[in-house]
Write a structure and sequence with these properties.
Layout: H1 19-35, H2 54-63, H3 65-70, H4 76-83, E1 84-92, E2 98-107, H5 110-118, E3 135-143, H6 147-162, H7 175-179, H8 181-194, H9 210-224, E4 231-235, H10 248-260, E5 267-269, H11 276-288, E6 293-296, H12 298-301, E7 311-316, H13 323-330, H14 339-344, E8 348-356, H15 360-380, E9 388-389, H16 401-409, H17 412-472, E10 485-487, H18 495-508, E11 516-521, E12 524-535, E13 538-548, E14 552-553, H19 565-577, H20 579-604, H21 611-632, H22 636-650
Parallel strand pairs: 3-8, 4-6, 4-7, 5-6, 7-8
Antiparallel strand pairs: 1-2, 2-9, 10-11, 11-12, 12-13, 13-14
Helix pairs in contact: 6-8, 8-22, 9-10, 15-16, 16-17, 17-20, 17-21, 18-19
Length: 695
């Protein structure tokens, strides 16, 4: 729950919240007040931001109250004033008209907002954790409206304007139905886009309707992957399977059997499964390739179905309201364990989205786009710009919801705008990558130059130390150095006693992190330093020995032999004998660094060559925006009407499948349907009397 003065802005949801949400807030606050910190609760979700802008604010309200108070953000409006910008934008209403709508489209101070969000989230994708699953290949299957649909769209637009239900061939609206006019119009539009027989059974079949297109595509994939027994999922939340009634599932199955010769037993509906046992049997049959096509709704087939082993294609007859629902549908095939896609389809799964022009499909695609873009950009953490436009392209996914919206609308200006926006985003991303590459190369060049100078200075100092050593070292007849070790606090000069003395120093000395002189070799001082470390959970002191010249030289990483007195005494001469090797290593590293300089200098000197093109495209986009604004600006009464239509449209949910679960499972659904003579376009979920009631 939250308070706001923006009560006429789309997408804010129900500000009154629910009693359960309030109880949760009280419980979390009690825990937080006891500790005085923003701790005590962990939220686990795959969709932390799913539907509206308020969800992001509410996450902060629940989990970071102290931080909100520190930033003097005490209500939603204060938060929105910092991170969001309210604009008037053009969207599609339920009748595919373009109308003005106020909403929070632009999010500003994005890096700060993302950092704030990432403070309380640990977000992981399948790619982040290395899940081996197929890639999604989306295909937009654009379907021109049939003549019957064209005519009905005109009727629907007139009904939405006038409220005269007789235009649609039904009785006048009752007082209750009058309040839900746009809800009824929305339901009619959704059904019309799927099949005209959902409006009136008198319309009959049409060879160019969505069912015919879908049947043809299913048959193509069926035969293409026949040798591998490839399987397909078909999703629709409207007109689900009911025994003895006409439905789009059974209609497509009829076409597959009669027109394409696919065996009936290889086509199943998830609604046929009335028990968990029968459900598991169908899933197993899909994985074995005995069932090749499985129909279902989002609620019954979208989750908990692991039938991906042979999946090659997913068909969306309709589009759900939430991006998360579309993700769940796609996840039936785009998941680990898809063997056929990996071996025979280049590790890709085709996702076919069927959309009828000038239908509610355009509106739903637009809604999905507005919700998905911001959510994905925020969760990914890859936010470069300081401002996010929910209406912009998603450069990583190519043809996304915005492209769908523009293509389906039939408006060439919007299509051109979508193309320009995508090109601009791509160029801005390219420029950002180019500038980052230049910056990284410049920093790398500076670092390399500094490292070369340091290496060359180190080489000279080490050469000076080795020359000093070579001038005084004594060697035996085999060329091995003679030890000339002298220990300050040891009165003995033989190796055995000096070795015992060194081993005693290694065991008992504690210099508290400081270098302390203990002797010399060939005029080079020898020092010991004590370092603390944990061994088996206990803190112990370790001592290292170094020979000091221009640098501190060590042999065996500074540790002396604790079981061999001769080796212990020779440790320091051996350290000096390593100097030529150290010089060689520094010279080789310097040579490698110098070899990179010409390439880096070449990169740093480059300039990005597409700045003029980007400016020109931005100028074109600005001009096109002005043109669209001038041509599509709605009248004042149209503005008032759209808010009701949008609100009504967003209250429509997917049909309940509870009735399906009560029917007994049948092996082969009948193809003769008892078609009711009377029908109603009012959704099965009913008409809410109070849109803003507490849930």
């Amino acid at each position: 729950m939250f308070n706001t003065r923006h009560d006429r802005v789309a997408g804010l949801g129900n500000s009154e919240g629910s009693q359960r949400a309030l109880n949760l807030l009280y419980a979390i606050r009690t825990i937080q007040e006891r500790t005085g910190k923003d701790l005590g609760a962990t939220f686990l979700s795959g969709t932390t931001i799913s539907n509206s802008l308020t969800e992001l604010y509410l996450l902060f309200k629940y989990l970071r109250p102290n931080e909100l108070e520190r930033q003097e953000i005490r209500c939603f409006d204060a938060w929105a004033a910092i991170f969001a910008k309210k604009t008037t934008d053009f969207e599609f209403n339920v009748t595919n008209n373009i109308v003005a709508k106020e909403r929070f489209r632009y999010f500003i101070k994005v890096p700060e907002l993302a950092a704030f969000y990432n403070e309380i989230t640990d977000y992981r994708t399948a790619e982040d954790v290395g899940v081996d699953r197929p890639h999604k290949h989306e295909i937009l299957h654009n379907i021109p409206p049939t003549p019957a649909q064209e005519a009905f769209i005109e009727k629907l637009m007139k009904f939405a304007e006038s409220g005269d239900a007789t235009i649609l061939g039904r009785a006048p609206l009752s007082e209750t139905e009058e309040k839900a006019k746009m809800l009824i119009a929305t339901d009619y539009a959704r059904k019309m886009a799927l099949d005209m027989r959902m409006i009136d059974p008198e319309y009959g079949d049409d060879p160019n309707n969505k069912a015919s297109h879908c049947a043809r595509m299913i048959a193509e994939y069926y035969h293409k992957y026949d040798a591998q027994r490839g399987t397909q999922f078909v999703f629709s939340d409207l007109s689900t399977y009911k025994l003895g009634e006409w439905n789009v599932y059974s209609e497509i199955k009829r076409k597959l059997i009669e027109d394409y010769g696919i065996p009936a037993h290889e086509i199943r509906f998830i609604q046929e499964c009335k028990t968990e046992r029968s459900r598991k049997a169908v899933i197993e049959a899909m994985n074995n390739g005995d069932v090749r096509v499985l129909f279902g709704s989002t609620s019954m087939l979208g989750t908990g179905v692991n039938a991906q082993r042979r999946a090659v294609c997913i068909h969306h007859l309709d589009t759900p309201w939430r991006p998360s629902d579309l993700t769940q549908r796609d996840g039936r095939a785009i998941r680990a364990g898809n063997e056929i896609a990996k071996l025979y389809a280049d590790n890709k799964v085709d996702v076919v989205i069927y959309a009828v022009e000038k239908s509610l499909d355009s509106y739903k695609f637009n809604l999905l786009h507005c919700k998905a873009t911001f959510i994905d950009q925020l969760k990914s953490g890859a936010l470069g710009a300081r401002t996010i436009d929910e209406g912009a392209m998603d450069e990583k996914n190519g043809m996304n919801f915005s492209e769908y919206m523009a293509i389906l609308s039939g408006n060439t200006d919007l299509l051109e705008k979508a193309k320009l926006e995508k090109r601009i985003v791509a160029l801005e991303s390219e420029r950002k990558s180019f500038n980052k590459g230049i910056s990284d190369s410049r920093f790398r060049l500076q670092t390399i130059s500094h490292d070369i100078a340091n290496n060359e200075a180190a080489i000279e100092r080490m050469k000076a130390d080795y020359a000093r050593y070579e001038a005084v070292v004594q060697r035996d007849k085999d060329g091995n150095p003679v030890n000339s070790l002298v220990l300050d606090d040891c009165k003995y000069k033989d190796e055995q006693n000096m070795g015992i003395h060194l081993q005693g120093l290694a065991r008992k000395t504690d210099t508290h992190g400081k270098y302390v002189r203990v002797g010399e070799v060939y005029g080079f001082p020898i020092s010991i330093i004590s370092e603390r470390t944990l061994v088996d959970g206990k803190e112990v002191v370790q001592n290292r020995f170094v020979v000091e010249g221009n640098y501190k030289y060590k042999f065996n990483n500074g540790f002396i032999a604790m079981s061999d007195t001769h080796a212990a005494c020779m440790n320091f001469v051996n350290a000096l004998e390593k100097i030529p090797g150290l010089i060689t290593q520094h010279e080789e590293r310097t040579a490698r660094l110098k070899a990179d300089i010409p390439t880096l200098e070449s990169i740093v000197s480059k300039t990005w060559g597409k700045e003029d093109e980007l400016k020109h495209l931005k100028s074109e986009l600005a001009a096109l925006d002005r043109k669209i604004t001038a041509e599509l600006a709605p009248k004042q009464d149209e503005k008032d009407g759209v808010e009701n239509s949008q609100t009504a449209a967003q209250t429509v949910d997917a049909p309940s499948q509870s009735e399906d679960a009560k029917k007994s499972m049948v092996a082969e659904p009948a193809t003769d349907y008892a078609v009711p003579r009377r029908f109603s376009a009012v959704p099965e979920t009913g008409i809410p009397r109070h849109a803003g009631r507490r849930m």
